[in-house]
Design goal:
The structure is a homodimer. By secondary structure, chain A is α/β, with parallel strands linked by helices. The first copy, chain A, is elongated and about 90 Å long. The N and C termini of chain A lie far apart (about 80 Å). In chain A, helix 9 links the parallel strand 6 and strand 7 (about 215). Chain A is built from 13 helices and 12 strands. The structure holds a DNA duplex.
Chain lengths: ~350, ~350
DNA sequence: CGAGTTCCTGCAATCGATTTCAGTATCGAA
DNA sequence: TTCGATACTGAAATCGATTGCAGGAACTCG
């Protein structure tokens, strides 16, 4: 049913070769011939077969994108940014989800490989370093996190700075016992945010205490458990403020606080990482470190496409590492600590 | 340096033809030969070129999916359901976003067409009826909404029943003036939910009043404006309860109520359509009609794949229309109306 | 007018996997 | 021992678009 280039050529009374050139390299074909071909193509509503073209040209205008969890609004925003940027340059995207699962990531990469994408944008899972060997000569940009690969291009936010600013805000309010719930040690963003937390404490002359820092494993339930553990102590030992490393765990922390009947911000101040709809809808509205997720993803995709279209080899190009800065948004969930 | 089937064949000392058969139709090849081939394939970590295969077989194991807005958590859930179902059967998915824009939808379909997908799952935009002609012989399943095409397969929820149940809950509490914010008349779900609202009112012997029903155009801002208009009246004319047609508009309505300083549920009861994280996190938690979005999408994809693999022709198969039921979740945002 | 360009077009090869068709080897039965 | 059936294997065509190369026409310039 699909009309092929041969049909167009026949209708335009030229060879398939000429038809092909008329459509994709118009300047190499005489004006009048070109007209005949384009008309024929329009008349038959010809659509080139991407598979055939891709086979010959070794790769179609296709990108792979691997994100960690489409249900997380932040990641969904990344997905949208990638797609919009790709669509604008007339690329299509194969999108995969890993659910933070290294094995799923591997399968996604294998499946992707057969489609011969021109490039890859990935939010690397903890095991990405190994997995990415599967596609070692595919131009790749790492988004939001770093896999730790030596010559990778990465587009991330300034996690250290964002975390530092958040915790500085808390110390400036007079908090001394500030807890943190971070993701996990095998994800670079979590490590960096923890680093920012430590730097801010140090800057305020507050000693780092291991018992105030727990992993929440990036998920709501982990955040709830961690917060419960941190906060379920007598008032004089309990942290007076909490810094939470991502949006899902922040929800968990809020649930834990409700279970323990702690009030915000009178009993406890809280700052989250990642802004979201509900953060400003809550009462009180949650103070957060906002990330420019859409811009980040858009930029990652553009970076990749520029690299592809300039024909710069993956190998020779010096790895670029771009950091966008975060925005601190003060709302109503932070206040001076309760009087002792 | 993609390894091709020819390389595998050479290493296994067989012809490419045999190598191909050994991998895809094992029973037609002698055991010992098959072993040699599979070993060679593993050794070279051979990955078939989907483009070449797709070219020859006229179509790769690829599906198209078009959803309306990946940033809406409900739609993101649909995306995930589709992907999981497809991955389980070893299909890959081209995912597109329309942002409810008919023109974007058209471009997505055109782009998709060139990739020769085996099938399509679509959340139709208002203009889908026209756009879908572009791919008229592609097996298609409509998800969540109906385009109105005669012989379409659709997988939706029971919007009428869900809305009816929500409004019955309100009438049972004693509400008489119940407002509704619906999406728009050109989207089937919105029309059906409005229908359910009318049926529930009728069942309770309450007259339908046009001035209590406004369109919010599916978006947060539309919902806010509509709610503001409905609620900005003296207490004795103001609705005592509000039924909102989707999650985004519910957020808008909540913002409007905050602007007008109306308290939930003492001044006003509210029921939303679509459950979400924040609905149960809010204080008070919001009563909603929940949709089985993941199941819906998973089922849509399975339906499509079954149809494909049973080789049932698109034309002859009688159109299936599946409805899943919604779940009413009573939380704390509904209560009897304030005494007059 | 002839040689050298320039411009345009078509032939045929190519990408990688699948599949038809024909050919060889093996085995059982007569 | 020979014939036919069965089981495997390989050569070559095919899918649809692109592209290197060669050839013909037209045009320029001496």
């Amino acid at each position: 049913m699909m009309t092929s280039l041969k049909d167009v050529a026949k209708l335009a009374r030229v060879s398939p070769a000429t038809a092909s050139r008329a459509l994709s390299k118009p300047e190499t074909v005489a004006f009048i011939t070109r007209e005949r071909v384009t008309n024929a193509a329009k008349q038959l509503s010809y659509q080139p077969n991407v598979l055939a073209r891709g086979l010959r040209q070794r790769g179609s205008r296709t990108l792979g994108a691997i994100i960690s969890d489409i249900l997380n609004p932040g990641q969904a925003t990344l997905a949208k940014g990638i797609q919009d940027a790709a669509a604008k340059r007339d690329y299509t995207v194969f999108m995969f989800n890993t659910d933070e699962d290294t094995e799923k990531e591997r399968r996604a990469l294998e499946s992707l490989r057969g489609h011969l994408p021109q490039g890859l944008i990935i939010v690397p899972s903890p095991g990405a370093r190994e997995n990415l060997k599967l596609v070692s000569n595919l131009p790749t940009v790492e988004l939001d996190r770093s896999s730790g690969l030596r010559d990778a291009h990465t587009i991330m936010v300034d996690n250290v700075g964002g975390a530092r600013e958040a915790v500085q805000h808390l110390t400036a309010l007079g908090h001394k016992r500030i807890g943190m719930i971070f993701g996990s040690m095998d994800v670079s963003t979590a490590v960096e945010r923890l680093q920012g937390y430590r730097e801010a404490l140090e800057g305020a002359g507050i000693a780092y205490r291991e018992d105030l820092v727990l992993s929440g494993n990036h998920r709501e339930e982990g955040g709830r458990v961690a917060a419960h553990t941190l906060l379920n102590r007598p008032a004089h030992q309990r942290p007076t403020a909490l810094f939470v490393g991502n949006n899902e765990m922040t929800i968990g922390a809020l649930l834990a606080m409700r279970e323990l009947e702690l009030r915000i911000p009178s009993d406890l101040s809280i700052v989250g990482f990642d802004d979201s709809r509900w953060a400003k809808l809550m009462q009180p509205a949650i103070t957060v470190v906002a990330q420019p997720a859409y811009e980040l993803a858009y930029l990652a995709c553009e970076t990749l496409l520029n690299r592809l279209e300039n024909g710069v080899s993956h190998q020779t190009m010096r790895p670029a590492s771009i950091r966008l800065s975060t925005t601190f948004i003060k709302r109503d969930s932070t206040a001076p600590p309760p009087p002792t």
